[in-house]
Structure formats: structure tokens, C-alpha cells
């Protein structure tokens, strides 16, 4: 897959002049020049969770509860892997913007809506076409800029339901080493890996032994090289980032490995093959999509087509249109109507969440706002 136009080099833009004001600041509050964007909305970026739907299907098909949990852990981690080397910032969704993805080949359908603008909150709901799972959540992205990279730390609550097993899993953001515990908090298995590459599982005793011998070895190396004999020195808990590949512990089982990026990925915003397809729009889709779908959003489309000036003008126009509409509502006491989701407690944790109201796939879109 490709996009209509390759990305622009950002080298000749004085990024520093724009960004020295922003170090460590929250990016959703800053209007960024469009050259720092990738041609996707955050709603589309969120959909990249679904690239590895096969892991959910594997979990649903398994009769072994520990194996199910391993697959779910891999799914939670795999979602973050597509961010690797993606320096472009997705477009902030406009209030009321929606995105759907129907992939019969991968066995799911997904709908999301921007349900709040300040703070920005995106709600999503996906279901297996064979009713084998439901995956839903609401995300409040915190994007921060740190010199060379944009750190996206999605906050929110994510729920995966496997109706065949009457199970639900909830998580916030995954960290990359952990244990699966039983009810008495006893470690059943250890998970380890590198979030951009793979996830393995192994029994906890082997994992802990490996960690100890690793720590001893690195201490010996350090003492050898720096003559450090400080007994209070803490052993390194985490391997250094330069340790490129994951050291596979004997007896481990590979649960997930990333699919390679397409060869031309660097030219196209470091997109995965899955991301390259997210903004595709064919004649058939045009007949059924609601007018609020990201694929119809003009600033993203013009950036994808390689016209930076037009994209910039469109982005400003849309943001201005959104501000005007907000002012108008506050004057007239008119309430913004959220279409496809409603606020409510998460059914498993009780935490405040956004839940799917239903009805989106009935394709009756006569009541939708004009946001573009």
C-alpha cells in the first residue's frame, strides 16, 4: 500500500522556533503547524488497536484460562507497537467526529466518536462479527513533546469482553514486564519482551533465575570495568535500551511478534500496512458513511494528497468553525448532543466511562451535525 503523496521532509522547517515553547507541554493545547501532523485523525490512530485482532480471536477460541490471559496481554501490548518511530502527530478530532472500520477479513467492526473537546475524549466500541468479543473504552490522550519525540500516553480505561467464557479484562496503559497471578496472588507465569517487537511467556521461577544471573553478570562486568566496589550499589533492574534484541530465556513461548513494516514505510510517515489503509475511501463507502467520518475531513485528505498549504488553510478553517459553533451554543444554551455513546460507570470497575448507546450500524444518519 501507499498514500497518494510521500511525506514532506521536516528538516527545513525551523521546528525549534515552534517547539521551544512546548517542551514538556501538553500538545492538545497547542496549535501545531500541519507539517508536524500525520494524515490521520486520533480516532483513526486509536483503531490501530485492531491490527492484531487475531490475538483476541485466539483468546476466545482457547479453553485454557492462562493461555487466554497471555493472548490478551499480547493484544494490549501490540497496540502500542505501531507507534514506534511515528513522529507525526495525529490530528485532534473535532467534537462529533466519528470513524468506523468494518473489516470482515479480520472479523470485526469498530465505531468511535469524539465525545468531548475540552478535555479531548475519544470513545470507541468494537465487536467481533461472529459475536466472539466486545472491545470498548474511552481515551484521553496526553501528548507531550520531548525534543526528538512525541510521547503519546493515552489515559483511559479499556475493556475486553469474551462472552463465550463469560470473562472481562480491563486495563489502562500496558507496561512491558509482568506476571499473571492467581487468586491468591501466586505468580503463574511471567511475561517479558520489547513493546516494539514481541512478547514471550515463561514460568516465573525460570524468569526470576534468569534475572538474578543477569544482574550478577552485569555487576561483574561493571566491577571489572570501573573497579566499582560500592556494596550499596543497586543492580540494574531494567536492561539498557541499547540492548536491541530481546534475550530469549530457554523454555519461553512466543505469544506475539510484530509484522514487518512495508518497505516504503519511511516515506509514508512510518505507517504500518494497517495504518496505510485507514483513510482509504472508495465509492461504495461514500454511499454509506456518515458526514462526520474522518475520511471526509478535508484537512487530513489534503495533507494525504501532499498539499501542505491547502491542508493548513483547511485545518485553520475547521478549528475556527468549531470555535464559532461552540460560542453560538454557549449563547443560545443549546446542548451539544453526543450521538453514539453515553457516560456511565464501567460495568466491571465502576470507574466513569463512555459506553456505546447502539444504533450506529442502522445507517440512519439524518440527525448528524455539519462539522466539516
Automatic annotation (TrEMBL):
Lineage summary: Eukaryota, Metazoa, Chordata, Craniata, Vertebrata
GO CC term, one of those recorded: cytosol
The protein's name: Oxysterol-binding protein
Similarity-based family: Belongs to the OSBP family.
Pfam families associated with the record: Oxysterol_BP
Domain of life according to the entry: Eukaryota
Region spans: Disordered: 210-243
Keyword Lipoprotein attached: no
Ranges of compositional bias, category Basic and acidic residues: 210-224
InterPro entries: OSBP_sf (IPR037239), Oxysterol-bd (IPR000648), Oxysterol-bd_CS (IPR018494)
Record keywords, A-Z: Lipid transport, Lipid-binding, Transport
PANTHER family: OXYSTEROL-BINDING PROTEIN-RELATED, OXYSTEROL-BINDING PROTEIN-RELATED PROTEIN 1
A biological process term (GO) from this entry: lipid transport
Example GO molecular function: cholesterol binding
Organism from which the protein derives: Sinocyclocheilus rhinocerous
